[in-house]
Amino acid sequence: MFLGGYEQHATTALGDLLDGCSSLIELEHGLVQVDDQVQAMLAAPVDALVNILDPGQDGITHIGKDGVAVHGQAHVVEPRLADALEVDRARIGRRAGHDHLGLVLFGHVAHLIIVNETVLVDAVGYHIIVLAGEVGGRTVGQVAAVAEIDASIEGDKALLKEKEAEFYTNMLALPNLPDADLLPGGKENNEPLRYIGEKHSFDFEPKHHVDLCTDLGLIDYERGVKLAGGGNWMYTGMGARLEWALLNYFIDTHTADGYDFILPPHMLEYQCGLTAGQFPKFADEVFKIANHPTEGGTFYMLPTAEAALASVYRDEILTEADLPKKFFAYTPCFRREAGSHRADERGMVRGHQFNKVEMFQFTTPEGSDEAFEELVKKAENLVAGLGLHFRTVKLAAGDCSASMARTYDIEILIPSMNGYKEVSSVSNARDYQARRGNIRYRRADGKLDYVHTLNGSGLATSRIFPAIVEQNQRADGSIVVPEVLRKYLGGIEIIKK
Hints:
Blueprint: H1 8-18, E1 24-26, E2 49-53, E3 59-64, E4 67-71, E5 74-78, E6 111-114, E7 134-136, H2 144-172, E8 191-196, H3 209-215, E9 219-220, H4 221-228, E10 234-235, H5 238-256, E11 260-262, E12 267-269, H6 270-276, E13 288-289, E14 299-301, H7 305-309, E15 317-319, E16 325-334, E17 353-363, H8 368-385, E18 390-394, E19 406-414, E20 419-430, H9 432-437, E21 440-442, E22 448-450, E23 452-460, H10 461-471, E24 479-480, E25 494-495
Parallel strand pairs: 11-16, 15-21
Antiparallel strand pairs: 1-7, 2-5, 2-6, 3-4, 8-18, 9-10, 12-14, 13-14, 16-17, 17-23, 18-19, 19-20, 20-23, 21-22, 24-25
Helix pairs in contact: 3-10
């Protein structure tokens, strides 16, 4: 069939071309017919390829039992025309009416729709294009098979969509590639790099932080559970002030280092967790908001400010002059992880809600390693400033988060646990998060590249607090306030009954 504007010379030319054909040309499903009066007929809209024959070629040279042979080079220009080809009566005459599709030749250029027997179009080669499956005397009304094929295609499309979604989900679950210098394996191959600060020694039997905090009225564990269930606690009196002093110490330090302060939303959309690399794998480990007023998606309570900060520039293009971008954010963090029932992890070591200040950088690939070392040093300085004993540990490849290429943990000594607990993880995601969030920058030469993202706790309070209480306890049950915190407590040096 021929498509185009309504130019009279085209219909005449086609009529002359097809004069002498007093037969019915019919596709397998009854799409086109020709006789001495009716030169072409469109039976139904179809999915097809439009092929443009080169001008100057011989055009249509033969109509026979096997269909129409066409000489000339064919070019594919449109994959789908079904919706545009509906007519009220499937007829194209020698003189096209206003309500029918016209027959047009622009010079010797023909616009052809080519359909095979399955209504799925094969690649069009040079020299020969078969239009008709057979020539016969049947009518165009035999089109029921087309509807069956359409239904089959729709079913295939639905299956394809399902498989594409499955593939996409599986690809998103793939972890980052660890840096080449990391040791293989898990925690057993973590490598302590350095120990900082003096390990406290006691000439008395030290108490557990739960007992110290209860005796001094710093934490009300029972009422925390009454208010929000297990894995929760409530700061009271000097305990609340000490917690706030820690947060102010972190905030003032980061501000002095030139980092921009951000207070992000605590409720985040799914894409934030996806960009950060926490979703889809850990989507069931965070709190979901069942009645969020926004339609079209589930929202989540942020598990860490990293999930928000990683998406600040999602789907944006920065310039090389913009980088590095250095942020820190204060948020409470919400996690579904169940508090351990082990005696050595009772209290504040694990919980459903805790406070944390998060450091974050966007940088160039060339500046990535330097940024990582900067964040590690900042986390170390914060802990050292409190006068606490700790160590820095290089994690083995298997102990790194799935989103990260490398991670150093800052682990603080908690005497009652007779071991070290992580208070900061400093990680380099390289371009893993940027690719998931489509975060790019334009280099000075104009080329686009993905940024690198890095994050680190700076710091989480829920383990710093117990470490301060236990490392700084005295025989009488009082606690020495770290010097850097005293200005936030009105000069108080000792917390006692």
